[in-house]
Predict the structure.
Amino acid sequence: MEASGKLTNLQLELLKVFSVKLNDEQLKEIKSILSNYFAEKASDEMDGLWEKNN
């Protein structure tokens, strides 16, 4: 990834989501959801590499 000075589509979408005031518990839940999503994507990619390269 490259820093371009422009916001990505993900950043823009997150700004929309976070335009609403969340309490600490809601913020914690959303951080967990995002972490789990990206961890699953990384795991899927690693599984694919493992299968491809034995």
Summary: The CA atoms of residues 6 and 12 lie 10 Å apart. The chain is about 70% helix and 0% strand. The helical segments are 9-17, 24-53. The chain has a mean pLDDT of 89.
